[in-house]
Write a structure and sequence with these properties.
This protein is mostly helical. It is 80% helix and 0% strand. Helix 1 runs antiparallel to helix 2 (37-59) and helix 1 runs antiparallel to helix 4 (103-126).
Length: 130
């Protein structure tokens, strides 16, 4: 891997971590500001997972980084998928609308996160093993 590729990979890893933290932060904010019940608990777990995966994206190397990148990508896909289901047909009896707090922002952050993490994951998987 060339020096430029290594720098690009580090930038993508940091950007991925920031987007994971943003996703987790949005869910933590919602859980602490009015979303209660089982959905509030799921939002707290989402915030914890976002933090753990963000740390993993910058702290791990080798095969563990590959696993963290794949899990992070799947995490954002699942999170956005759950929101889309809640906005359309409902999820676990929960129906959401576009006017709810931070819904448009969440869709934007998670969509960008999926694209960035897809590129990051591809680069991590193609990188030579350390």
């Amino acid at each position: 891997m060339t020096r430029t590729s290594q720098r690009v990979l580090w930038v993508l890893r940091i950007l991925s971590a920031v987007l994971l933290l943003a996703t987790g932060g949005i869910h933590l904010y919602l859980a602490l500001n009015g979303v209660g019940g089982i959905l509030g608990v799921m939002f707290i777990l989402n915030a914890i997972a976002g933090l753990v995966l963000a740390v993993a994206m910058v702290a791990l190397r080798g095969r563990m980084l590959q696993a963290a990148a794949i899990l992070s990508l799947l995490f954002l896909i699942a999170t956005l998928g759950a929101l889309v289901l809640a906005l359309t047909v409902g999820l676990f009896g929960i129906h959401q609308d576009w006017n709810f707090t931070l819904v448009p922002e969440t869709v934007i952050v998670e969509s960008i996160g999926i694209v960035v993490l897809a590129v990051t994951t591809a680069m991590v998987l193609r990188a030579p093993r350390e």
